[in-house]
Amino acid sequence: MTSFRFRRGTLTTGQQRNWETLWPVLGRDLEIGPERIPEPQLDLDAMFGRDNPKVLEIGSGTGISTAAMAEAEPDVDVVAVEVYKPGLAQLLGLVDRNGLTNVRLIRGDASIVLRELIPSSSLTGVRLFFPDPWPKSRHHKRRFVQTGTLELIADRLVPGGVLHIATDHAGYAEWIAEKLATQDADRPHVVQLTRESPILLERPTTKFEGRAEREGRYVSEFVYTRPIPPASASGDTLDGSPA
Fold first, then answer.
1. 207 carries a ligand binding annotation
2. How far apart are CA 181 and CA 146, in angstroms?
3. How many other CB atoms sit within 10 Å of the CB of residue 223?
4. Domain locations in the chain?
5. Is 136 annotated as a binding residue?
6. Residue 209 assigned ligand-binding role
7. Which of 32-36, 74-78, 214-218 has the lowest mean pLDDT?
8. Assigned superfamily of 31-226
9. Distance of CA 145 to the CA centre of its chain
10. Any residues with CB less than 8 A from the CB of 225 and at least 6 apart, and which?
11. What is the pLDDT of residue 220?
């Protein structure tokens, strides 16, 4: 069962202008439906025209955090995935106004993006901020954080790459902690980060998070990393040299 839900919304005049002028340049729509053809893998370096660290943000919302963190790290390229068209249009406006050249956008199911578009060992970071908690027990299988998803994310990260999750839902935080604690160490997995992060971890406080704090909801954060193999093992590291 996928966590994907196609969210509709009406664009403002400014957002519609952003969509018409900027989306063809910076954005990409994924096919949906049972008859869709599997997506080809992305050439992430060609997507940005350079060989720099790549971060995948899953569920970028209105793009406030996306744009702020991209502006703070101009040498890191960000692929923002979202299904809500007005949110993507707002992010396009932020990218344009702030002169950001390191953000690209995808509209579609993040599970498909991870499975089909992102190559193995290609991401320096994956960000998952405030995912839908699907609070009802019968919907827990729709939650994005699952054992298989964590394994997939770990495979897409380079050794030393970081998974950063934030949620203000106490039940989902417990769920995430349990999934992280029960990973199969013989499969691609992540462990708690205990060294310096290769990407920015400081998030701006959005209106959504501010409301959560006023309502007494504590924000839980999880910062994990794909283990770096021992020096005697071979494989890619953050700088592309043998590990």
1. yes
2. 12
3. 15
4. 31-226
5. yes
6. yes
7. 214-218
8. Vaccinia Virus protein VP39 (3.40.50.150)
9. 12
10. 157, 160, 161, 162, 163, 190, 191, 192, 193, 195
11. 95
* Tokens 């954060």 -> residue: 221
Who's near 7: CB < 8 A, 6+ residues apart?
83, 84, 85
CB 55 within 8 A of CB 76: yes
Of the residues 43, 51, 96, 132, only one is catalytic, namely 132
CB contact at 8 A, 4 and 111 = yes
Please state, in angstroms and as integers, the Cα–Cα distance from residue 128 to each residue in 18, 57, 201, following that order.
25, 6, 12
Kindly report, residue by residue over 111-148, the tens digit of the pLDDT. 999 999 999 999 999 999 999 999 999 999 999 999 99
Q: Which residues of 3-28 are buried (b: 16+ CB within 10 A; e: fewer)?
A: bbeeeeeebeeebeebbeebbeebbb
Query: Which residues lie closer than 8 Å to 109 by C-beta, 6 or more apart?
Result: 2, 4, 30, 32, 83
pTM: 0.89
CA distances from 221 to 55, 75, 124, 197, 205 (A): 17, 24, 18, 14, 13
Alpha-carbon span 146 to 174, nearest angstrom: 12
User: Measured at the alpha carbon of residue 143, what is the angle toward residues 193 and 110, in degrees to the nearest 5?
Assistant: 75
Tokens encoding 7: 């969210």
43 is catalytic: no
The response to whether 141 counts as a known ligand-binding position is no
10 Å Cβ neighbour count for 204? 12
